Fold:
Amino acid sequence: MQSPLFNYADQQSQERYALQNPQLLRVSLTGHDDILARKGSMVAYQGAIDFDGEYQSTSQRNASARTGEGLDLMRCSGQGTIYFANLAQYVHLVDVDHEGLTVDSAYVLALDSALHTEVIAVDSQYGISGSGKYQLNITGRGKVAMMTSGQPLMMQVTPEKYVSVDADAVVAWSTQLRVQMQAQTHASSIVRRRGNTGEGWELSFTGNGFALVQPSEVMPPQNAQIGEGLRGQFGNSGQNQNNSWN
Structure:
């Protein structure tokens, strides 16, 4: 059998983490280097690999119940090669070191099991209940594979140049940055996340580091309200759960 499809055969690499292509992650395991990955993200594997879907530390379980933020992970161990992907999003590898990484858990594909994660809150300057944003702090030494919808923009933050980004488009930033959540619209209309401008909350960064932004916003559904459970998240009757606009 012949086909151009054979040009997409698996790529050989000596690296533990490597990109098979921009939207597919390849991870090699040697038997003593477990990784954690998003549940359901495995698309193929070779070798003797064990997937533990019940993995979750007590602190992660408590944080997820309290805030709704957290990684729903599986532990991958054994010897072989695993391929991960999620909705054909672009995959990016980051080396985490002493600086640390703060990231929205929705954009984490896989990470070294030795890394430490902790849920943190970014509060609104207006003190409006339900308007804060929870993120994950990742510290230690190791690799994280993140995802973006489309090719991202990396913005450098310096004491002379602060950066503001849409809270629905930001993916990650340097942990040491100072960050404040604020409204892009006048105070009279901020209860509705996007007011009259089509914009909503933004994160303002100061200090030294970077902020990673994707060219896609996680838009709130039609008629969504803050602090109203499923109705608040998805609009009337829990519809528009997948950002499906009528």
